[in-house]
Amino acid sequence: MDVPVRSDGENRGMIKFAKVNKWFGDLHVLRDIDLHVCTGEVMVICGPSGSGKSTLIRCINRLEEIQQGELVVDNMKVHDRTVNMTELRAEIGFVFQQFNLYPHMTALENVTLAPIKVRKMPKAEAEKLGRQILERVGLGNKADAHPAQLSGGQQQRVAIARGLCMRPKIMLFDEPTSALDPEMIKEVLDVMRDLAREGMTMIVVTHEMGFAKEVCHRIVFMDEGQIVEVSSPNDFFAQPRTDRAKTFLSKVLVH
Amino acid sequence: MLKFFNFRVILEYMPLYMKCLWATIWLSGLSILGALIVGTIACAMRLSRSRSFTGIAGCYIESIRSTPLLAQIYFLYFGLPSLGIRISEEITGVAALTLNSGAYMAEIIRAGVLSISQGQIEAGIATGLSYSMRMRYIVLPQAIGATIPPLLGQAIVLVKDSALLSLISIAELTRAGQVMTSERFMPAEAFLTTAVLYLLIYYVLKWLSEWWQKRLIFRETS
Amino acid sequence: MWGFYLKGLVASVPFFLKGLWMTVAVSGLSLVIGTIIGFIWGIIRVSRIRFLPTIIGAWVDVIRGTPFLVQIFIVFFIFPELGIHLEAFPAAVLALTNLAACFICEIVAGGILAVPRGQREAATASGLSDFHQMTHVILPQAMRIILPPLVGQYVLLIKDSSVVSAIGVTDVTRVGWLTVQRIPEGLMVFGLVGILYFVICYPLIRVSNTLEKRMTVAATRL
Which of A15, A70, B72, B157 has the fewest CB neighbours in a 10 Å radius? Predict the structure, then answer.
């Protein structure tokens, strides 16, 4: 995919990490992170486990807090503790590895809860939107099912729909397919691929290199809390610049 | 109110409180031991193959659990004399506490024994261990270790339950408070002192339970 | 002799039924109010509010570490010293409500903490406020975990209500105590008392067990 033309001076959907550091107690999990994500860009973050990639994207909507540095998302200073995150979180959709659907609600109720309570949408309007988006992820006929009645792949697609119903500017994915049985990975990646082609700003933490090659604009390789390499997918897979990246790729691509 | 709190009178009654604190401790202690014995027997009966044993134990446990301790105490206190059994209040009290806690202990021990996974027992059978050997080396050591915290919890409950013995004129901690109240008309000093002394026992037992649980964790990881 | 006592006992049945009604009244009132307060305290306990969780925690610990009998005596005897004159019934309800609230608080807090962390994160990530998170996502799921021990706690509180007989409230236990003064057949009198409590408590215990089984099945299905 071509790198999107960066709009002049327009900062909508832009994410900027500047010298960000984070510790869990004594453990230094994010080291001097400098990263810039443009509107409409699809970015994949990969790396060995413990490299800090999940922590990185969880900082974007302040599910984790940073101790040092600046993090600006859509012109809001996330690193500033006094800033209220509710508004910004409504603009960011987050898809978890463990889906985290509300088990006591139907799929429709899951996706319409936030629009009704946070965006104050009237129930009828929210339900219409909800059914539309569930249709879009291929689950229009499952709107009244409970998560327990859905397969893992279906649940994750509902989770994506839940994020999309808020009409976000950014979608974050934290290893969305890692908890799925292999036969269900494709249906979720298909939805994500469509989203990417429609121009959604996406950051995806994943091991699915096929997806990365096909759809993303840039790949970020992280190891031990640092960003080691940032390049286009073609460059990254053909000619990784650093040794650490080479070692990682050799392990991941073999199977 | 603290200005009028008469610490001197409390000091005056301290000997009585100490005597009664000791009474509470040994009454509870005796009852816990008795309850362990009764509980183990009842548990063994519950888990046995004999229908009548299971039935008797079941009736015993369900009756105790569905009726208040105070009613059980009065049952023995007023009931035993009518059967011609004349025993001191202390023994009646200990008997009531023993039978009451015994039922709860039985359930605790049962949970501990059942928590040993079937797989381990099968491994024991497969390696040729007899029933008593499996009990001795596999089941009981683990069951006892896991059972200690809830048992200590039941001990805490039993110490609090022992307060009811004051209602059948046994000289224990709560009774000390009642005596001081009736003699000096100072319920605040009397019962707050009682409460503080019970809290002392409570925190000691709680600390013991936490210490044991930490020991368990170390054991498991080694 | 026996026939005479039995006739006396049968004649006392209306008295016992009045006592039963008093037990139901005291317990019922305390359980209802105690549940409401217990839920509020429990939610505060696990919230991020600043001082309240610690204060509530300390209070709950004190209540759980002292005998209920002592607590009732404190309410009944010490409040008049502070200028609040309470009759036996209100004092009993006050003390039992407080007891209920403290135990229910811990059950509710435990239930809320048992809801998987991911649920809270998903709700936070969608921008839901703490209030909406609690009412729509956390509490509904916590209720499934809270219900079985809550019903179990109700049984315990109904049994604890027997202690209010010590300050003269005419509940089933006190009726038994008064009756046995006239009819010195402790076994019959307190046998009847036991049966009356059994009739209330045993069904509730069964409900609690069924709820617990259903909850474990549902959890494994999820």
Answer: A70
